[in-house]
C-alpha cells in the first residue's frame, strides 16, 4: 500500500520565477497533501494586483461575456456548485478584485465560481473524505481542481464524482492539470485516477488555461503550464479552455480555470432551467470559439475557448 497523494492544480505568483526556469516545471506545481493531512509547499508571497472592478460589476480577470449575461438576468440562480477541494491546508494571498485576501486553495476556487455566477449556491466539500456527495435539488455542478493517484475504490468521494459524471446527474468541471503534458498520460509512473475515471463521461468538461481571455483581435494561447488534450479524441471532445489572468490576480493554474467554466455552466442553468447536465455540458462544448486562439489545433485546445455569449444565445437547447 502506498501513501495517498493529492495535488491541487493551481499555483500562485510567488512560484512563477522558479517554474519558468525549466521546461519540465510542471512537477514543481505540486502542493502535496498526504492522507494524514500534511502539506507540501503551497505558500505564496503577497500578490495584490490592484485588479479593478468594471462598471458592469465584473472584475478585470473576467470575460466581457459575463457582464452581458448578468445584464440579461442570468447569474446562476437556482443552481448548485459543489466544490471538492482543500479547505484545511496552508492559505496564501491573492486578489480577485476585492483587495488582497489570504485563503486556502479550495476557498479561492469556490470564490471564483461564486463571483462568475453570483446567484448560484456554493457548497464546499473536503477532498478524500470517506463519504459521498449530497447533491442538491435542481441542477448540480461539481468542480474538482486536483488530481489523485490512488485507485478511486479507496476514495468514496472521488468515486462519487465519477459516478455522477457517467450517470449525467451533475456537470463535472475538472482541471486539466499543470504538467505541460497530455491529459491522461502518466507522470513519473503515476496516473491521475480521477482524470482517467472521467474520460468519456457525458457530463464532464476538462478545463485548460489560456494566457488571457482571447478575442479575434487579440488572440491567446495555451498557458505554458497547462495540460492539453493531445491525441485522445475523447479528451479532445471534452476539453475547453478559458483565460487565467494571473498577472492581474496572482493566481495561475488550471485550478482557477475549472471554476470559471463551473460558473458558466451555472449561468446557463439559470436560463435553460429544464436542461439536463449533459445538455448544458454539450452546449458549452459545442459553442466554443476557435477564432480567438493562436494556431488553433484540437490537440492543443480541444473544442476551443469557452464562449458564454454563444452558449446563451439560443432560446432553448436540447
Could you explain the architecture of this structure?
The chain is built from 11 helices and 13 strands. By secondary structure, the chain is α/β, with parallel strands linked by helices. The chain has one domain (5-42, 51-312): Peptidase S8/S53 domain (Rossmann fold). Strands 7-4-8-10-11-12 form a 6-stranded parallel beta sheet, sandwiched between helices. The protein has a 3-stranded antiparallel beta sheet with strand order 3-1-9. Helix 5 (193-198) links the parallel strand 10 and strand 11. Helix 3 (105-116) runs parallel beside helix 8. It is globular and about 50 Å long. Mean pLDDT is 87; it is low at 1-5 and 12-49. Residues 136-298 form the Peptidase S8/S53 domain.
Major pleated sheet: 6 strands, parallel
Which sequence of SSEs, written as H and E, runs from N to C?
EEHEHEEEHEEEHEHEHEHEHHHH
CATH architectural grouping: 3-Layer(aba) Sandwich
Provide the CATH top-level class: Alpha Beta
Helical fraction equals 25-40%
CATH topology: the name is: Rossmann fold
Number of strands: 13
Dominant shape: globular
Average predicted confidence as pLDDT: 87
Global structural class: alpha/beta
Query: What is the count of DSSP helices, taking H or I runs of 4+ residues?
Result: 11
Give the N-to-C terminal Cα separation: 46 Å
Instruction: Tell me the name of the CATH homologous superfamily.
Output: Peptidase S8/S53 domain
Radius of gyration computed on alpha carbons: 18 Å
Low-confidence stretches: 1-5, 12-49
Indicate the proportion of strand residues. 15-25%
Amino acid at each position: 500500500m502506498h501513501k495517498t497523494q493529492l495535488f491541487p492544480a493551481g499555483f500562485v505568483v510567488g512560484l512563477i520565477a522558479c517554474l519558468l526556469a525549466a521546461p519540465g516545471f510542471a512537477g514543481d506545481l505540486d502542493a502535496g497533501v498526504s492522507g494524514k493531512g500534511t502539506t507540501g509547499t503551497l505558500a505564496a508571497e503577497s500578490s495584490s494586483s490592484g485588479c479593478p472592478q468594471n462598471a458592469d460589476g465584473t472584475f478585470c480577470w473576467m470575460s466581457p461575456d459575463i457582464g452581458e449575461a448578468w445584464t440579461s438576468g442570468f447569474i446562476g440562480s437556482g443552481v448548485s456548485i459543489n466544490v471538492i477541494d482543500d479547505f484545511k491546508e496552508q492559505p496564501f494571498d491573492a486578489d480577485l478584485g476585492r483587495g488582497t485576501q489570504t485563503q486556502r486553495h479550495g476557498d479561492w476556487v469556490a470564490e471564483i465560481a461564486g463571483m462568475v455566477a453570483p446567484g448560484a449556491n456554493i457548497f464546499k466539500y473536503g477532498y478524500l473524505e470517506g463519504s459521498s456527495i449530497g447533491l442538491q435539488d435542481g441542477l448540480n455542478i461539481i468542480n474538482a481542481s486536483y488530481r489523485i493517484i490512488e485507485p478511486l475504490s479507496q476514495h468514496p468521494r472521488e468515486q462519487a464524482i465519477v459516478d455522477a459524471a457517467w450517470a449525467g446527474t451533475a456537470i463535472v468541471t475538472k482541471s486539466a492539470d499543470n504538467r505541460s503534458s497530455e491529459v491522461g498520460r502518466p507522470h513519473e509512473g503515476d496516473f491521475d485516477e480521477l482524470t482517467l475515471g472521467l474520460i468519456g463521461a457525458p457530463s464532464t468538461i476538462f478545463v485548460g488555461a489560456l494566457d488571457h481571455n482571447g478575442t479575434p483581435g487579440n488572440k491567446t494561447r495555451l498557458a505554458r503550464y497547462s495540460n492539453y488534450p493531445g491525441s485522445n479524441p475523447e479528451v479532445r471532445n471534452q476539453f475547453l479552455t478559458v483565460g487565467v489572468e494571473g498577472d492581474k490576480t496572482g493566481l495561475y493554474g488550471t485550478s482557477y480555470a475549472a471554476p470559471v467554466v463551473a460558473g458558466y455552466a451555472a449561468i446557463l442553468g439559470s436560463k435553460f432551467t429544464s436542461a439536463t447536465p449533459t445538455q448544458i455540458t454539450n452546449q458549452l462544448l459545442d459553442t466554443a470559439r476557435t477564432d480567438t486562439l493562436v494556431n488553433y489545433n484540437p490537440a492543443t485546445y480541444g473544442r476551443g475557448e469557452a464562449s458564454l455569449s454563444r452558449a446563451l444565445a439560443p432560446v432553448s437547447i436540447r
